[in-house]
Amino acid sequence: MHAFELVDVSLYTEDLGRFRVPLTDGTASAPVTLPEGTVINVGITFRLGRDIDGLTLEETRVRDGTVVSTARTVLGGFRTGGPYELRLPAERLPVGRAHCGEYEVTSRFTDAGGRELVTLRHRLRLVHQPAPAPAPAP
């Protein structure tokens, strides 16, 4: 077993359910498509072949070759074993046509010493959510 083994990465939404992220280099696979403004929680399941202190997730989103956001989340210290299941805090995806399009997402897991444990790449497509139709007059 490797020091760090990803078992599952998923995006959870309240209205649309769960979207599983491919655990391979997902740049060649179909992107996960979500409407703008969707509230998501990233869920991570992993196993450890050794104790790891200061497990950190750094997620970078790139659109048209430009880094648009980087988030760093310290997940904590974990003992050998698992599987461990974590859900990150909720995040609202951007709203507006200017934000719609395809993003390359890189999720990099490191330990307290900054050593890279695993890197996962996937794509995310934000699509325009049309305004709801007005209610008919009574």
Question: How would you describe this protein?
Answer:
The chain is an all-beta fold and 138 residues long. It is built from no helices and ten strands. It has strands at residues 4-13, 17-20, 32-35, 39-48, 52-63, 66-78, 81-87, 91-92, 101-110, 116-127. The strands form two sheets. Strands 1, 2, 4, 7 and 8 form a five-stranded antiparallel beta sheet that branches. A hairpin with a 2-residue loop joins β5 and β6. The radius of gyration is 17 Å and the shape is elongated. The termini are far apart. The mean pLDDT is 90.
Sketch the topology as an H/E string, one letter per element. Answer: EEEEEEEEEE
Q: For the CA atoms, what is the radius of gyration?
A: 17 Å
Total number of helices: 0
> Considering DSSP H and I runs of 4 or more, what fraction of the residues is helical?
under 10%
Show unreliable segments: none
| Measured distance between first and last alpha carbons | 65 Å
How many E-type strands? 10
- Strand-residue fraction? over 45%
How would you summarize what this structure contains?
This protein is mainly β. It has strands at 4-13, 17-20, 32-35, 39-48, 52-63, 66-78, 81-87, 91-92, 101-110, 116-127.
List keywords for this structure.
elongated, 5-stranded mixed sheet, about 140 residues, 5-stranded antiparallel sheet
